[in-house]
């Protein structure tokens, strides 16, 4: 799903575990950290968080992504 909105190549051969990058993802600039070949941390500025979640929900529809609130 991140590859849909990211402007960099997120394949493990180009962005291996441990890699960091700052790049546009959807409608905001994010810092991405590859924790594993298929796991990423995404850091978004608080001021963009709500609109980025809207983008994520919209982009995630084709992947059957369901967002839920956590406490």
Distance between the termini: 24 Å
Strand content: 25-35%
Give helix and strand order, one letter per element, not per position: HEEEH
Counting H and I runs of at least 4 residues, what is the number of helices? 2
Structural class: alpha+beta
- Quick one: how many beta strands? 3
Mean model confidence by pLDDT:
91
Instruction: Calculate Rg over CA atoms.
Output: 12 Å
The proportion of residues forming helix, as a percent range, comes to 10-25%
Q: What are the segments in which pLDDT stays under 50 over at least 5 consecutive residues?
A: none
Strand order in space, largest sheet: 1-2-3
Q: Sketch the major β-sheet.
A: 3 strands, antiparallel
What coarse outline follows from CA principal-axis ratios? globular
Brief account:
This protein is an alpha+beta fold.
């Amino acid at each position: 799903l991140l590859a849909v909105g990211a402007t960099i190549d997120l394949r493990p051969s180009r962005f291996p575990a441990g890699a960091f990058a700052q790049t546009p993802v959807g409608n905001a600039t994010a810092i991405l950290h590859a924790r594993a070949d298929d796991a990423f941390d995404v850091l978004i500025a608080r001021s963009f968080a709500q609109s980025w979640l809207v983008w994520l929900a919209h982009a995630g529809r084709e992947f059957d992504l369901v967002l839920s609130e956590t406490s």
